[in-house]
Amino acid sequence: MPTLQLFLNQRPYTVALIVPTGIGASMGGYAGDAIPIAKALAASCDRLITHPNVMNGAQMYWPLPNTLYVEGYALDRFAAGTWGLQPAKNKIGIVFDRAIEPDLLQRHIQAADAARATLGLDITGYILTDEPLGVELKTADSGASWGTVQRLDSLLRAADRLIGQGATAIAVVARFPDDLGVEVLQAYRHGQGVDPLAGAEAVISHAIVREFKVPCAHAPALLPLDLDPEISSRSAAEELGYTFLPCVLVGLSKAPTFTTNYQANSGAIWGASVDAVIVPASACGGSALLSFAASKTKIITVAENHTRMSVYPADLGISAISVSSYLEAIGVVIVDRAGMSLDSFKPQITSLQQLS
User: Are 257 and 251 within 8 A, CB to CB?
Assistant: First the structure.
């Protein structure tokens, strides 16, 4: 019985999986292509914390019962220790950009109705912004994507109205430009480019989470593309149908809410409880990663997930466990969770040395 009680009282082993958005990650830089990584990691730990860029796959999604879907700004605050995550079941309100054409809007409403009818999601209703949001897409010199939203004030007013009517999470569908540039679009569709939408999407969700402290995720409204039989498997999820909304609604339905009030035994999860964080090796400059690196959390960097960034752990003085692949990262998690030394898995083990 004492052994069983010790097992029951053991703290859940928690992993954070981060693939920054809009930086051309070769794995996780496309719609839903990091979901297999998340699924495998979720099976190797007690609790996985990740963000919409990892779990969103347009009409493809895979809910994981031990995985928390946390928007990027909230993940930064969580890692810094200022916000805790509270497991929740959400009532989702949807903000639609007034710039969306009537037929395209109707397709998105039908997607939301389908989510209610087939998945049982609790969606309170939708609101149109009082002005077109005016999304503009940009590209940095590094090749990473970013963007601007001309009428963030209109977005925030719409979200405020939904929250006032009982919504506890906000899905946003903004009309994005269809003309993304032939070369940029072709490269992305064929698995070689950067997601041109991701940077502007982050602006939208960050604004709502920062202002209202509620879960938020975004789905772009775009006209369907012409059929291309040479599409990459990694970008294929974005070729299906008229909407990217289903995965966002599924993710938000059980996304954790946020608290700034630490109370023991409240059920909230705090950044100090994260045992390991996994990130592409060249993308170590993000706020969440830097916060985790200043704690006791193990940093695991994956070399094979190439990005357009060049910010490595050594550049920042960060101590990290460097691995070649996500398969190897999962192995590190399993070994660490078992309380074993990684040195035990090397072909040569040096003899113990006397300490001073």
Answer: no
| DSSP, res 295 | T
Provide the 10 A C-beta neighbour count for residue 354. Answer: 4
Spell out the long-range contacts of 293-301 with Cβ–Cβ below 8 A and sequence spacing 24 or more. 293/318, 293/319, 293/320, 295/271, 296/272, 297/16, 297/271, 298/332, 298/336, 300/276, 300/329, 300/332, 300/333
Question: In terms of DSSP bridges, do strands 84-86 and 92-96 run parallel, antiparallel, or are they unpaired?
Answer: unpaired
At 278-314, the pLDDT tens digits run 999 999 999 999 999 999 999 999 999 999 999 999 9
Report how many domains make up the chain: 2
Answer yes or no: do 277 and 242 share one domain.
Answer: no
Give per-residue pLDDT as tens, 20-75.
Answer: 988 999 999 988 999 999 999 999 999 999 999 999 998 899 999 999 999 999 99
250 in the same domain as 180: yes
For residue 40, the number of C-alpha atoms closer than 13 Å in the C-beta half-sphere is: 15
DSSP state, residue 214: S
Do 145 and 188 belong to one domain?
Answer: yes
- Which residues sit opposite 300 in a β-bridge? 278, 321
The widest CA-to-CA distance across the chain, in whole angstroms, is 75
Q: 128: burial class by Cβ within 10 Å (0-12, 13-18, 19+)? A: middle
Domain carrying residue 167: 92-254
Q: Does pTM top 0.90 for this prediction?
A: yes
CATH number for position 208: 3.40.50
